[in-house]
Amino acid sequence: MQGFTIRRVVEKAIPLRDFLMQDMGISRKMLTLVKHEGDIEVNGMHRTVRHELEPGDEVIVRFPPESPSLDMVASERPIRILYEDDTLLAVDKPAGIATIPSRLHPTDTLANAVLGYYQRIGLSSAIHVINRLDRDTSGVVLFAKYGFIHHRFSELQKANGLMRTYKALVEEEVTPQTIDAPIGRAENSIMERVVTTEGQRAITHILACQPFGSGSLLTIRLETGRTHQIRVHLRHIGHPLIGDSMYGGAARMPRHALHSASARFIHPMTGDEIQIEAPIPEDFRTYKERGWDITQ
């Protein structure tokens, strides 16, 4: 079984090790894995990383095959695909299911459903989640089909190259603003987060606010990705999400009203700009049409 393969043509004289790490973006850890379990060729010949490259050389890297964790169970739950290519999958996550398995939700998660999809299309790979969403948050979730692609997206995120926007429902009008307030774990709680000087820096941009039924629909862009960041920051400014019982939101929806609406990035393999969008979910539209309380 063959794993993921990438090819590049060399433009200048450079040691093979440097080309692999600097030009191809292969981490030191992944390079060690390739040396032991994969293969590196230059112009069709097996080469060690000490080889000196010349302009015009073709470098081929074959990563070792991947397989899912032995305790990962495939699910038949259908998925709604927003975008797919040879290396990347974007799914519209519904509210009410976890992104990845846990003790409380061991099998029926989005990751289990994606594994089931991989099996149906004949893809042997581990599950690589690029961005996680809370159980009751809906919208865009990205999966890398290979560990190398996951690593490239991790580097992209560190450089703020993955732009994510969210839609959020609150009760009142909110002035567009940037919230720069550190977030840490609440005392005596495993899940709850709070704004605290001892926390990690967290930056949330509220880009727009528009009337939406009897409430307001916010457009939000994340600059950082802390746990519960939008939920904590909106409570911090006195406008908690509708339905967010943990952070003081009005019980006017059966889940907290947060939707991952889009993701934009430069594709690490093609260099193309990719914009992925998930439409406003049905419960948001129902809220707008029926007014304050859609739980009845």
Automatic annotation (TrEMBL):
Sorted UniProt keywords: Isomerase
EC primary class: isomerase
InterPro entries in UniProt: PsdUridine_synth_cat_dom_sf (IPR020103), PsdUridine_synth_RluA-like_CS (IPR006224), PsdUridine_synth_RluC/D (IPR006225), PsdUridine_synth_RsuA/RluA (IPR006145), RluA_PseudoU_synthase (IPR050188)
Similarity comment: family membership: Belongs to the pseudouridine synthase RluA family.
Purpose of the protein: Responsible for synthesis of pseudouridine from uracil.
PANTHER family listed in its UniProt record: MITOCHONDRIAL RNA PSEUDOURIDINE SYNTHASE, PSEUDOURIDINE SYNTHASE
NCBIfam families: rluA_subfam (TIGR00005)
Protein name as it appears in the record: Pseudouridine synthase
Organism: Exiguobacterium profundum
